[in-house]
Amino acid sequence: MGNSSNIFSKENTSRLLLRFAVPAVISLLVVEIYGMVDTVFVGRYIGANAIAALTIAFPIQKLLSAIGLLIAIGTSTNISRNLGEKNSSEINKTIVNSFIISIISMIIVPFIIFIFRSPILYKLGASDLTYSLTEDYSSIVLLSGIFQCLGMVICYVMTSFGNTKINLYANALGVLVNIILDYILVVKLQIGIKGAAISTVLSQVTVSAFAFYHFREVIRYYNIKLCLISIVHGYNQNIIKSILAIGFSTFIVEISDAIGTVILNNLLYSSGGDNAITIIGSVTKVSMFMFIIIIGISSAMQPIAAYNYGAGKLDKVKETVYTTIKMVIISSVVLAMLMGIFTRNILGFFLKDEEILGNAVQAFRICISLVPLTGVYYVLIYYYQAIGQARRGFLLSIFKDIVVFIPLIITLVQAFGTLGAWMAYPLSDLLSALLSVYLLVKPYKEEEKLPVLSQKKVSLAS
After folding, report:
1. What average pLDDT is seen over the chain?
2. Rounded distance between C-alpha atoms, residue 118 and residue 15, angstroms
3. What's the pLDDT score for residue 303?
4. How many other C-beta atoms can be found within 10 angstroms of the C-beta atom of residue 442?
């Protein structure tokens, strides 16, 4: 395990990035299939209102996932930099404190949501027609939070040590369990949407158990104590602050998507009813395949950049960032073209109603039209995280989905109805891409270097 980190500095950049990116993309693909399994089963065996219920419950699941990613990315980035600095004691402390935050947050947050579930679900866009289904699903899915979070943290920690396939294997196992249980509970036993929720919880339990089984090697190597007494005594406020600061921009990216969904659901219900929510639910599920490429490659860059930044190899960091940008743009353009051609076939897998399907095809093609342009935007967010520039990462992460997207959907839906909602997606992609290119090009005109890639490293507070 100790020698595995050498690959970050010695291997060819393109080859190294592919080594991390391919498993990351496949893993995210598996995760997306994971999220789509319930949609497929409830759409085909319960009906369109069940898809609407899952769409309404999506922000709750997104919140739990965002908290997990916040902790996982903050932890893994800290570990990668400490590996570059050869600081084993900090690695031990970071892992212990990541478990502390995971357990506390995933007890408190789901409990609060469950207590106030009725007003929350109505605020998320539930109607009298969809409330019962949404409550049944979300109340059970809340139980998956702690298992999902711990599984994420462990898998990201393992990735920072060079285990590029743990995420893939863990999530593939989760998908398999989810599919089998959905078939048994939804199709055979006809438990309905509750069966889909139970399947999700049990699959997350399986993922976290699998991840922890493989995590034992790290526990032994660094002599990590994860018993209750050790966890309590291992609490370190500075480390927790560092984890949260680094991961916060990822949290904002994830949660801003959920915030946008909440606002969009309410606007769409007013202008297009439950059918409009069904359409956007299907469209966003499928369009996430575009972001799998972008996020997968960008996140694969992060441990490489973080390690080399910690080791002071700034030229390697710079080369890694620009190789990542090229790879993201080329691959996302190819995928966008393919998905644009086969839109009806893809969406037809979820939607049986021809009228809804026709409207969804139009919406999908508009929504994904400029997604490849956002490649630079997401690469820069992960880059700022990798070098510990939490504030820059945060400011950039709120731009697309909060500063731009939310005002756009409010304005455009009022002006053009449901069509305005679809138009907001490419416009926000375009504006975020323009900002990112500006941030990327401006330093070259002034200093001939990327932001902060000077000969001095920066502090976490910058």
Report:
1. 84
2. 50
3. 82
4. 11
Question: In whole angstroms, what is the distance from residue 14 CA to residue 457 CA?
Answer: 24
The CA distance from 380 to 376, in Å, is 6
Question: How high is the pLDDT of residue 177?
Answer: 94
Q: Compute CA 453 distance to the chain's CA centroid, rounded to the nearest angstrom.
A: 27
Query: Measured in whole angstroms, how far is the alpha carbon of residue 320 from the centre of its chain?
Result: 21
Q: Is the pLDDT of residue 446 over 80?
A: no
Position 150: which residue type? L
| pLDDT the model gives residue 459 | 42
DSSP conformation letters of 120-186: HHHHTT--TTTHHHHHHHHHHHGGGHHHHHHHHHHHHHHHHTT-TTHHHHHHHHHHHHHHHHHIIII
Residue 210 in tokens: 């699998």
Residue whose tokens read 């419950």: 57
* Overall pTM > 0.90: no
Residue 456: which region, alpha, beta or left (left: phi > 0; alpha: psi -120 to 50)? Answer: beta
179: tokens are 């599919």
| pLDDT per position as a tens digit, 281-305 | 788 878 888 888 898 899 889 888 8
CA 37 to chain centre: 17
Question: Token pair of 214, please?
Answer: 């493989």
Length of the chain measured in residues: 462
Buried b (16+ CB within 10 A) or exposed e, 57-81: bbbbbbbbbbbbbbbbbbbbbbbbb
User: What is the residue whose two structure tokens read 């502090």?
Assistant: 459
Our CA angle for 273, 278, 281, nearest 5°, is 130
Domain boundaries, the chain: 4-446
CA 223 to CA 128: how far, in whole Å? 54
Q: Which helix (H) or strand (E) holds 455?
A: none
**C-alpha–C-alpha distance, residues 374 and 253, integer Å:** 13
Q: Tell me the torsion sign for CA atoms 149, 24, 63, 207.
A: negative
Cα–Cα dist 207/68, whole Å: 14
pLDDT of 456: 46
Tokens at 113, concatenated:
């949501």
At 397, the amino acid letter reads S
Which residues make Cβ contacts (< 8 Å) with residue 304, sequence separation at least 6?
Answer: 8, 13, 16, 17, 20, 320
Q: How far apart are CA 378 and CA 257, in angstroms?
A: 14
Alpha-carbon gap, residue 286 to 52, rounded angstroms: 15
> In which band, very low, low, confident or very high, does the pLDDT at 448 lie, cut at 50, 70 and 90?
very low
In contact, 282 and 350? CB cutoff 8 Å: yes
Write out pLDDT tens, residues 152-189: 999 999 888 878 788 888 988 999 999 999 999 999 99
Question: Under 8 Å CB-to-CB from 229, ≥6 apart: which residues?
Answer: none
